[in-house]
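Work Package 3 (structural annotation) set out to generate three-dimensional models for the target panel prioritized at the project kickoff. During this period the team completed the workflow that converts sequence records into discrete structure tokens, so that structures can be stored uniformly alongside our sequence database. As a representative example, we reproduce one entry of 136 residues exactly as it appears in the project archive.
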Amino acid sequence: MDFLLGKTYLPSDFIIFSFHGDEGKFCLPELGEDIYYEYEPRGNFGPEEISQYCKIRTPLIINTGCTLGNQALAHSFLAKACHTYIGSRDYIEGMSTAFFVVRFFYELYQNGRSAQEAFAAARSTDSETMLFEWFQ
């Protein structure tokens, strides 16, 4: 919560969220009532929670969790936090998400490609990496 609210956020050009996702929401474990802050929502985080709590600003967010590349979640981040959002539209293998991120940054920095070119190269690897979507 402190990160989303901007309390512990350090400005950067990219944020990579590495969460499990299900049905377009971040999967968050259920904790004991004494762990939560009074204002903190319980359960999984979706577009409504991002719209309500997100105060961070960064040019690009990559979300590696399953199903977190859906339009509703992407648009909640685009409206509040970033100019470009990348996420997987379906359930994706963990190794594929790691490879996608590594290839994206390799193409961006080692080969000097634009973010869109790096995305296209990373996405083109196989049927799993093809699950990633670009939202702007």
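Residues 94-110 form the longest helix (17 residues).
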